[in-house]
Hints:
The complex is a heterodimer. By secondary structure, chain A is α+β, with helices and mostly antiparallel strands.
Amino acid sequence: MKWFDYSAPRTLDEALDTYASHPHARLLAGGTDLLVQMRAGRKETDLVIDTKRIPELNELHCNGALTLGAAVPCCRIYEDAAVKSAFPALAAVASIIGGIQIQGRASIGGNLCNAAPSADSIPLLIALGATARIVYKGGERSVPVEDFCTAPGQNILQPGELLVSIQIPKPEPHSGSHYLRFIPRNEMDIAVAGAGVAVTLNGGTITAARIALASVAPTPLFVKAAGDALVGQPATEESVNKAALLAKDAAKPISDMRGTADYRRHLCAVLTRRALRAAIVQAQEA
Amino acid sequence: MSTQYNVLGTRPIRHDGADKVTGRAIYGADFHLAGMLHGFVLRSPHAHARIKRIDTSKAAQYPGVKAIVTADDFPQTPDRIVDLGEGPTPLSYARGNVLAKGKVLYQGHAVAGIAAINAHVAEEAAKLIEVEYEPLPCVLTAPDAMKDGAPILHEDLKTTELGEKTDRVSNVSTHFRHVLGNSDERFAKGDLRVFEGEFDTATVHQGYIEPHAATVLWNNDGRVLVWCSTQGAFVVRDVTAVLLDVPVQQVRVTPTEIGGGFGGKIPVYLEPVAALLSKKTGRPVKLLMSRRDVFEGSGPTPGSHIKVKIGVTPEGRIEAAQASLAYEAGAYPGAMVGPGTMCIFAAYDIPNVTIDGYDVVVNKPSTAAYRAPGATNAAFAAETIVDEIAETLGLDPIELRLKNASKEGTRRADGPKFRRIGCIEVLEAMKASAHYNAPLAGPNRGRGIAIGFWFNAGLPSSVNISVTNDGSVNLVEGSTDIGGTRTSIAMQAAEVLGIPVERVNPTVVDTDSVGFTHVTGGSRTTFATGYAAYEAAQDVMRQMKERAAKLMETDAASVTADKGVFTANGKSLTFAEIAAKLDATGGPITGRGAVNPKSAGGSFSGAIADVEVDPETGRTQILRFTSIQDAGKAIHPSYVEGQMQGGSVQGIGWALNEEYYMSDQGRMMNSSLLDYRMPTALDLPMIETIIVEVANPLHPFGVRGVGEANIVPPPAAVANAIYHAKGVRMRRLPMKPSAVMEAIGM
């Protein structure tokens, strides 16, 4: 690995100043992607800016809605009682990313910025209607998570822009959400395909639904049509199957070492179906 | 077998345990010398290419770089055939795999070594080495490499056909055949039910946790001092001496602790490169492999294509069998196809057998041994067909195997006649096991069984024991301790000496300090080095009895010893009492043991697997798994069980997910532990074990090596279980979810 300088600003302003003057710097939260990529020679930089000491990026606040600082490690998420109660699916996702040691470092914000098509947290964030709060020197903007990733490893952040937090709106009553991934092993693996879903019920009727997929397109894939098709439908196996097939049709996977395109499309239907069933049960019990 | 032992069969704490659990043990990468330089090995990005030019001048000028070496830095000695412990091979091939000359033959093939003030500088500077390649078409599987018109790896490789050297240049290094009876004639009679199939297995890696590591100092006095993680310090010594063209006397190898090997740490990769770099710089040089280097640049086990045909009477008696095994050697000849042909039908007493073996070079890393090398591939094929026979004939799969099981006197197609073996006893233990008799209910679940054989190795070992004046002994040996062998060797000495094993200090020493000892491999260490320890301890006991006789004023012949107490004429002395008086009775006592067993007595192993297949994803979950193995005599049962569990887990990984996933251009796409997908503890149930003890007539305590046979049956057992769960016969490894799903139908 090539040498690099390291900077650990303690305020957002200091971080933005440093970043503005070093637009080729790389931002580090947990480092569980960045350092691996640098060691493998896939990324190179002469300055790493560590964001872990910036208060705004460490905020974890749940009052129905959730403010999730971009550098908050996974372990804080699944150990937080309020988050676990309001967003059980998010707590569950935080607990399947890597092993215990990784979860002590890795952040959901980092998972989003790394923009891997296989990122486990992103389909669920999309399903939950999350937005990314982006700050730059002299301003800020907010972007829906489904618009954040632009290509494998690429996102909409411009040089000098920092992801500060992820904002998740308060779920409606009788809502449920779930993320399921398929991996050949039981843990410590990368999704061959994944499905994140959120549904809201009114009695036996679905009043809102969002579905997003992992590992079947150049970016995490929001399948608006599959969720929309559920709205106004009864929460039945038939409705679930219909949405699952729409999700499968929307997938645009490639064949690689993790699975063939056909197999991944097949998995999209299976995972969407299973995730929807789980989310509906959760909504019914909510 | 009711021999009463004091030490054998107990489970003492291992002598090296404290250092290992506290992190103090020194492994290859932990070793450090003052003034040491750190190196980096530049590797080929191409699977097959001619090297037109290597220009190191820019890299040499990079600040901090001390030396760069390429194949041209090897001594320019004429090519000759050398035997480096795994059969005769041209010296040019042996050197060529360490540093490529003329051509690169696989992605990851080492091209240049570089030494610098630290590893980062070396890595950065290596980017400045200009290598001009002329890419050539590559060939990646045995069937493709055997086709007419396939890209040829070695223009000088002429096929040896049934023992005759031909003039045919091809990728087939050797085609050989074993024949017993006349299988063609027996099949032609037409009265047998015939079962046949073709099978493929992927290239898989041993997956040892510790990457290769070597430090070398080419000292001012001409001695080449090597510290490395290896299964065989003496083999490293001898190979390094040959490659560097220096006398064996000049090389000393000190083995560090080793984090797994499984056969993959027998070949030499880094040591000669570090030696050449040290010679140029006059400083010690350390070279480490990254995980990617391990996958792409060290030796995995061969992928294979196997055909099997078995003929059986309606009653289930196997009368004839044929097999053809084509194994991928990787870049240089030497696939483990010989052992595959020796093992494929070894579990069965079959009168008519023909087995063909093909050793085929392909553009993948030069293969190395992997735990019962060659046998697992073979058993996957044969044991799947045997399961089909049992199902078709309506026989219990264990009964069918018992009906045909090899026993003392059975002749294998490759020649040897079995001495006392435990094939039947292993099958009977499987049949009686709680697992086999437990019901397996529920949809998508199935149970499969299989059996496997490994012949084990004998080979030379040396042990010295010296008696200390406090009644303890120091035991010096040359076998790298991978699976607790310090203790299992010390236990055999302690048993003879009649003292507790805690009174034995076993130490693994360098190649200057003990007699030649072959690799920790072939399941031979507890068997052969244990045998040497037995001999050395007998030598000590003979001398102790003489001293006892002297002290008790009698003759040595009348002294008897039991549990460390020496008795004669109603008087007795303890081991410690005699040890305290060594100076007065003639001086120090040292015992020596040196053995070279020509054969080892093989071990049979069985596996029972319960699986559940997800019908929507094709994913197989192991619900329950039992390994059964003949240990002859289990010296330390915990370590025997550990070997059985480890072999089972590796076999399950081989069965379900592990493979070299290659691009068409011959690039390995999954050279990380993330994407290579070995099973983790979360993927497995506790592996149950049943130790069977059928004493080995070739060892004083009846020991059979247990390191390997246990990996042989698991892939077949899992395949058979998948069949019984979902009705699909998987004929290709790995049986990954997508493959099972395709077989079931999406």
